[in-house]
Design goal:
By secondary structure, the chain is an alpha+beta fold. The protein is about 60% helix and about 10% strand. The strands form 2 sheets. Strands 1-4-5 form a 3-stranded antiparallel sheet.
């Protein structure tokens, strides 16, 4: 099942931050193609973050598929900046295409509910939590990790909290279906948990997917959305109270 659209009845204008994030991801991906060392130097490597030391050179690692060679190019100083940089990098065309479709479908609704700047902070924080969750699973791993999946998982978590009844349109066995967001996203996160538990028994990553980053980003998105929803509700109550008091003074 792959989403291709959703119910956008609440939208009142362009989602500028979502548009900016999509463009930024595409631009960075083009830079990766032009300079492969950008990927090798700015991806998140758990051991680098755990130790604070940049790994440089070629390392041999044992994977379920056999022995692999990994190139580590010089990274930023401090090395922790890779946590932010890797959020805008991707490992291939299908990787970025899938992530940007998810961001485009679900990001605009969340942005309009939060506001532009709070949404940008939310996106970055969800991505950081996702990366830290991935690192926590295997802090000594030297396998690079990159992608916006942690941040976009946070967007999915927020969407689930804020728009559980919205209809999500998805392709399922060569036909388009429309199902509630709570079901579509619920199926997705259950798959992440099942796959994540299975991957721990093998390695910190299975099939090139950092499931812990997805789960961590999703949980961060849910928690932050619950907080934001309460704050937005309190603000609306405050504004309504001020209007009621103003009307009361007019009558008297």
């Amino acid at each position: 099942m792959f989403p291709i659209g959703d119910d956008d009845r609440e939208l009142s204008g362009p989602a500028y931050v979502t548009i900016f994030l999509v463009i930024a991801n595409v631009v960075v991906f083009l830079l990766q193609i032009a300079d492969p060392e950008l990927t090798a130097g700015f991806s998140v490597v758990p051991r680098e973050i755990a130790t604070g030391q940049d790994l440089v050179g070629t390392q041999t690692i044992q994977t379920p598929g056999g022995v692999a060679q990994i190139l580590h190019a010089p990274g930023p100083n401090p090395i922790y900046l890779t946590l932010l940089a890797a959020m805008f990098m991707h490992g291939g065309v299908m990787h970025i295409l899938g992530n940007m479709i998810y961001l485009w479908i679900f990001g605009d609704n969340v942005e309009h509910r939060f506001g532009a700047f709070p949404f940008l902070l939310f996106y970055i924080l969800s991505g950081l939590v996702g990366s830290l969750a991935h690192i926590a699973v295997d802090p000594q791993s030297t396998i690079p990790s990159l992608g916006a999946s942690g941040a976009i998982s946070g967007v999915l978590g927020a969407y689930l909290v804020l728009f559980p009844r919205n209809r999500v349109h998805a392709v399922f066995f060569y036909q388009v279906i429309s199902i509630p967001a709570i079901l579509a996203i619920g199926i997705w996160i259950v798959f992440q948990f099942i796959s994540g538990i299975g991957s721990i028994a093998v390695t910190s990553q299975t099939g090139g997917v950092a499931y812990a980053a997805h789960i961590g980003g999703f949980l961060a998105g849910v928690i932050l959305a619950l907080i934001m929803r309460a704050l937005i509700r309190d603000e609306r109550v405050s504004v309504l109270t001020r209007f009621e008091r103003a009307d009361s003074r007019r009558w008297w």
